[in-house]
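Technical note accompanying the year-one report. For the benefit of new consortium partners, we illustrate the data format agreed upon in the data management plan: each record pairs a sequence with a structure-token string. No post-processing was applied to the example shown here.
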Amino acid sequence: MPRDAAAPDILRRLGVPPKLRGSQTSETCPDIFELSDGNFAVIGTEATASLDSRLPDDAARADYERIVVISRETLVRAKRDIPDA
């Protein structure tokens, strides 16, 4: 599959690799990555259908956005790598 020239590069993982969080396979690997454009990418479990109607009144998502769930451990272990600004 050719790379999308407009897509940013993945600079680094935030937190530890899934294997260090107990994943023994590649099937359950939530992850957080910092991108070259300053944004972040998240690998998680698709949960839009089950959580969309439960969003707080002041939250919304565009049709092209999805709600994904990551484990608490994934985010907590990434905390030290998340920039302050």
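Partners are asked to follow this layout when depositing records. The mean pLDDT is 89.
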